[in-house]
Amino acid sequence: MKQTKPITLSFVLLWVLLSIFSTLAIPTRDSNTFAVPLGVPNAKKSPNPPSYAILPVKTPAVPVGTPPKIVYLQVDTGSGSTIVLPPYNSSLSRTAKKEPANDTTLPFLGGLKISGHYVRDVFRIGSITIRDHKFLAGTNVSQEAPGNGILGLGIRTQIPDGETIGAPLLGIQLVKGGGGQILFGGIDYSKIIGSITYEKQSVEDQWIIPIKLAFTFGVELPKNSSIESNRPIESSALIDSGSTVVYVDNGLADAFYQTIPGYNISTDGYYTIPCDVEVSTLPVVKVIINNQEFPIPRADLVFEPTQNDPKQCVGGIQGGQPNPQLWILGDTFMQNYYLIFDRGEGQIGVAKRSDVKYDDH
């Protein structure tokens, strides 16, 4: 989840709970890797989420504190902070230790703000226990929050004493609808087709890499358009599972939507397009990483209807990034590819997935 200060997204924690999920682990060829299935059993998807910047891709049940409270945490590669919300209450946990720092408020894209204090407490899953684990115990939330908090998977590492994984990396498969898998310490090659494309990080302490975006338009562009068909535009992007869509600068977003008949800007500031748009007429959007093209299926450019107009749907590409040299690749992109976050080599890997149907362009 992108916070409003994009250069300070990851400030506490990366490999949180690297081994606490081992009792839920799916066996792999390497005994030092742990596969964590994502998604909450029997969870109901909200037809109108309060913010399209939030998609509830959650962990399995995580007991926290003493006596333990069960929480489900949103998987968030764009944040280094782990945040735990009610039903956890640090004042009711016998093992909680409040940190000396003052209370903190963390702002996120979409208007969400979470206030609380840092504590150290116990995370338990089965026989695995991590003691004195530091996280933000959230006490005040400005709007409906994702699940019971956030599992920050930013780039900083914190491996519990006595627990190891095969390598300082994780593989992520996000499935449309909120499911998927995280493999801590390895790569699940059974989910990959073809080769893996790697790109080095351009910012040391965040999952940011250089990318290009290219568009293929089926209509004639306005004479004053700032973009051209099939001309790549260079920038850098944060790979962020806590953001639903792809965020670019307002100039690029405006030029993109001017090519789509019936587009609008909602009262909340989101670009919208007609829900009944013929998907095949939408522009082709390609993310280019290390000279390899990774198209975004055009169906993923149409999200759910807006709350104020059920005939208009939120677009999968949005503006709002003040810096044209820093975009965000959220779940619009991530749910179509297998992502490898390799801290050891300082790089991100991207590969096509065996469970995704790609457009024929």
Automatic annotation (TrEMBL):
<feature type="domain" description="Peptidase A1">
    <location>
        <begin position="58"/>
        <end position="351"/>
    </location>
</feature>
<protein>
    <submittedName>
        <fullName>891_t:CDS:1</fullName>
    </submittedName>
</protein>
<dbReference type="InterPro" id="IPR034164">
    <property type="entry name" value="Pepsin-like_dom"/>
</dbReference>
<dbReference type="GO" id="GO:0004190">
    <property type="term" value="F:aspartic-type endopeptidase activity"/>
</dbReference>
<keyword id="KW-0732">Signal</keyword>
<comment type="similarity">
    <text>Belongs to the peptidase A1 family.</text>
</comment>
<dbReference type="InterPro" id="IPR001461">
    <property type="entry name" value="Aspartic_peptidase_A1"/>
</dbReference>
<dbReference type="InterPro" id="IPR033121">
    <property type="entry name" value="PEPTIDASE_A1"/>
</dbReference>
<dbReference type="Pfam" id="PF00026">
    <property type="entry name" value="Asp"/>
</dbReference>
<dbReference type="GO" id="GO:0006508">
    <property type="term" value="P:proteolysis"/>
</dbReference>
<feature type="signal peptide">
    <location>
        <begin position="1"/>
        <end position="25"/>
    </location>
</feature>
<dbReference type="InterPro" id="IPR021109">
    <property type="entry name" value="Peptidase_aspartic_dom_sf"/>
</dbReference>
